[in-house]
Amino acid sequence: MARIGMVNYINMAPIYEVWKEQVRRPDWIMLDAPPAQLNRLLAAGSIDLGFVSAYEYAARPWLYRLMADLSISATGPVGSVFLFSSVPPEQLDGKLVLLTGQSDTSVCLLRLILEEFIKVRPRYVRGEIFAPHTPAEKPAALLAIGDEALRLNAAPDPRYPVQIDLGECWHQQTGLPFVFAVCAVREDFLQGNTEVAREIQQTLISCREQGLARLSEICTKAAARIPLMTAAACLRYFQSIEYDLSPIKQETLARFFALLIQRGEASPAALPLKLFPC
Ligand SMILES: C=C(O[C@@H]1C=C(C(=O)O)C=C[C@H]1O)C(=O)O
To answer: What pLDDT shows up at residue 134?
Structure first.
């Protein structure tokens, strides 16, 4: 048996729709959830492998290997990882920023961008972006990812007129793509299950190839999950998401992890990257 985690956002639709349609393996249990929940499940051994925040690998690299050729990434604007702000980011020093509880990678990336690139130090709070909250203090900016970011993007909140795409910002600073999520497999699962893991990896890649060839059909279905999103907007979104872990993406992960290690936010054992298969 293998327990597999899948992010429950529409960004996974090009892989997941094909998987649901074609993969008939009762011994492969698929569990879909927001990334932060998948991170916790994988760390606890409640799932064996799956798509998790790239940060999860960097936090506990001794538990995992990175499945070769799989990721959720973008070269330039990603279209679903945004800081929505009431003021330009240069003015966020000391201000309150609400960070989605669903993400781990983008939270680290945003702090890196604000503190190292823009040189401001806001105050942060983690929480629900759409919670009907009555906060003592209204946040000056929000970090949203995935479907929540797409919803806010489709129906902008006039209180947050400044919108920063974190994939674009990273690309402008480094010239590199950014890897938001990886497909990680637990080392203890690999003991005795190497062939199964290989078969799952190949199946995910095959679903991805078929999904990318059927994008316009898949985006009609996926767009319906986001209020006000048209199929055309969904197609543009899918065209900006990439699912590979090519050498440049590995270089990106190494660069990002090195910065996190310097900041004391990741394990030094996160480098060099450990891939499966090697
Ligand atoms: C591009 C995205 O990548 C996501 C971002 C993640 C994170 O920040 O931890 C985790 C999984 C991905 O789904 C997105 O969801 O918008």
So the answer is: 59
Q: Is the sign of the CA dihedral 233, 235, 239, 241 positive or negative?
A: positive
pLDDT digits (tens, 9 = 90+) for 23-40: 999 999 999 999 999 999
| Ligand 1 atom index nearest CA of 103 | 9
Q: Which residue has the tokens 């993406």?
A: 249
Tell which one of 42, 78, 145, 252 to mutate to probe ligand 1, the residue whose CB is within 8 A of the most ligand atoms.
145
Which SS3 state, helix, strand or coil, does residue 197 take? helix
Measured in angstroms, how far is the CA atom of residue 192 from the centroid of ligand 1? 30
pLDDT digits (tens, 9 = 90+) for 147-158: 999 999 999 999
Please report the pLDDT score of residue 278 as a whole number: 84
Confidence grade of residue 132 (pLDDT, cut at 50, 70, 90): low
- Distance, CA of 218 to CA of 224 (rounded, Å): 10
For strand 123-127 and strand 81-85, is the pairing parallel, antiparallel, or unpaired? unpaired
Residue bearing the CA closest to ligand 1, atom 4: 180
Supply angle C-alpha 187, 189, 191, rounded to 5: 75
Q: Which amino acids bring their CB within 6 angstroms of ligand 1? A: 7, 9, 11, 35, 53, 72, 78, 80-81, 103-106, 145-146, 149, 180-181
Two tokens, residue 158: 């006039």
Q: From CA 254, how far away is CA 260, in angstroms rounded? A: 10
Domains, the chain, in order of start with CATH, read: 2-75+179-276 (3.40.190.10), 81-174 (3.40.190.10)
User: Encoding tokens for residue 263?
Assistant: 């900041």
